[in-house]
Structure formats: C-alpha cells, structure tokens
Amino acid sequence: MNKLAIGLSVAAALAVQSANAGLHYSSPITVSGTVAYGQVHAARTSSDNKQFIGCAAYGAVNTNSTYVACSASDAAGHTLYCSTYNPNYYVWQAAMSVTEASSIIINADSHGNCIYVYVQNASTNL
Amino acid sequence: MVRSWSVCAVSAVIGIGAGWALHGSGSADTNESAAPGTAQVAQLLVPQPQAEAQSGLNLAQLHAAIAEELAAARSQSANERQAAAAAKATAPASPELIAQRREAVQDIQAMIATGEWGNTERAQFQQKFSLLDPEQARQVLQQVTMGLNNGTIHSQIDLPL
C-alpha cells in the first residue's frame, strides 16, 4: 500500500514537472540603490512575504496632470519607489504593459523620478 | 381640269411630306419620354462625359476633394480641441480654485507628516492631486516619492502612488 502511495506521488510530481516544461528563468527582485529589477511571477511565488515589483498609472478627467509610479521590494525588504509626473507616451506604455509574465527594470534619479522603465514580457518569466 | 388635278396632286405631295416630317419629330419625342426614369437613373449612376467636361472633375477627383475636405474638418476640430485645452490650462484660476488648491496641498502635507501611507492615503492623495496646478502636482508627487525612499513615509501597500 505504501509502495503504491509513493508511486502515485512520484507520478504526480512528474506530471506537474512536465506541465511546467519550457525554457524558464527565475529572477527574484533585486533592489540596489536607485535601480530595481526582477520578475513579477518570481516575486509573487517567492516564499517570503517581502518581494514585489510593479507599476501604476494615474489619470483623471478633470485634470491634465498624470503620473506613472513604480515600486519594488527585495526579499530583505529593501524598497525603491519612483514616479514621473506627466510622463511621455513611451514611459506610460512601458508601465502599463506589465503583466504576470513581465520582467521589469526600474531606474530612478536622486529625486525619485522614474528615468527608465523597461518591461519585458516572455514565457520564460513565468 | 388637268390643271386642277395637278394642283391637287402637288398639294397632296406637300401635305404628305409635311405630315411625314411632323411624324418623325413626334416619334423622337415619344421615344425620349417613353423611359424617362431609366434615362435619369443612368445619368446619376454613370459619369457623364459631357458633365465631366463642363465641370472639369472626374469621379476620382471628386472623391479626393471630399476626402480633403473631411481631413481638413477633422484637423480643424482637433486643433480647436487642443486650443481649448491650452486656454483652459493657461486661464487664470479663480479665487475659489486657488483656495481649494492651497487646502489640497496642506492636506497632502499633513498626510506626509503622519509617516504612514496606505490605501486611504493613496486614495486621498489622488483626489487632492487632481485639483492641483501642474507645478504643485509635480512637487507633491516628488515629496511623497522621496519620503517613501528615505524612510520618512512608511508604505503599508506595494504601490503607494
């Protein structure tokens, strides 16, 4: 009976393994000075409760003011926040293209302005 | 007697000729009026070389002219919208709006001073932010971001802005 249970467990593990096949890289969140990078999926599935990375965009009908803001935290709890007031189209598009399959690089200046937002969406990030 | 017959014959020939001539022109009229609808539809559907020659435009030129007019109208309305937005942005703020903006900045400064930033603060910040003039908005956004980075503001959420 025990052998049967072990066999079923091994078979289930192999089935899960094959379901997740495909080229994959895992990049946890790294925060270093005014730069942060890492994968959304790796952050979300990390065993700690510290890691995150993402971006937000603000717009309202009653104002011409908009902003994009990005945040990241590594496993040790080091954080980086940046924002850009009235960003150009390309920064806005980059921030809004973030998905679960994203790998993100954020770069801020000394005033916290996002001066660089890179978003890569790929199956390898999942 | 013979002369009388000659006159009659000549008169008859002239009458027949005149009648034939009248018949011919009448027939042409009848043929034209027999299918007036068809003729008019054909004139509408098929470009008429005579009309083209008179106006100097063919169908392609007409399409191009219409497209040009539409593009000009669209461009004008976009320009008008941009001008209206610019005028609104540069219009002097009313005393009431200036007071609202001053109050909004004070409220945001008070939130920053508490040192805690959660969902409530984010929602209030965004509500106040929409009231501010561009320079005020840029400044408070930078203040909050710098506060988060230097630790004077503790964020309770992952995306505080």
Short structural description:
Chain A is built from three helices and seven strands. Chain A is an alpha+beta fold and 126 residues long. Among the domains of chain B are: 50-91; 93-155, no CATH class.
Report on the structure:
- The complex is a heterodimer of chains A (126) and B (161).
- In chain A, the strands form two sheets. Chain A has a four-stranded antiparallel sheet with strand order 1-2-6-7. A three-stranded antiparallel sheet of chain A has the order 3-4-5.
- In chain A, a hairpin with an 8-residue loop joins β3 and β4.
- Chain A has a single domain, classed as OB fold (Dihydrolipoamide Acetyltransferase, E2P).
- Helix content of chain A is 25%, strand content 35%.
- Chain A has 126 residues and is of the alpha+beta class.
- Among the domains of chain B are: 42 residues; 63 residues, no CATH class.
- By secondary structure, chain B is mostly helical.
- The longest helix of chain B is centred in the first third of the chain and has 33 residues.
- In chain B, α5 packs antiparallel against α6 and α5 packs parallel to α7.
- Chain B is elongated.
- In chain B, strands 1-2 form a two-stranded parallel ribbon.
- Chain B contains seven helices and two strands, in the order αααααβααβ.
- At the A-B interface, β3, β4 and β5 of A face α7 of B.
